[in-house]
Design a protein that fits this description.
It is built from 2 helices and no strands. The protein is flat.
Length: 57
Amino acid sequence: QVENQHQIRRKERAREDLIDAALTDKKQTQKISEFCSKSIKKYPAEREKPKMKSWNP
């Protein structure tokens, strides 16, 4: 279990380092924003479901 926790922490740190590196590089930031905008257009948010009326016995 301890080894798994260390692996998870290492992966999280590596992911954070990659994100930081990508956001500090202007070219990478441009690519990320283009990717996000394409993803948003491709997968629009679901419509809000109607709220259920509260039940009062």
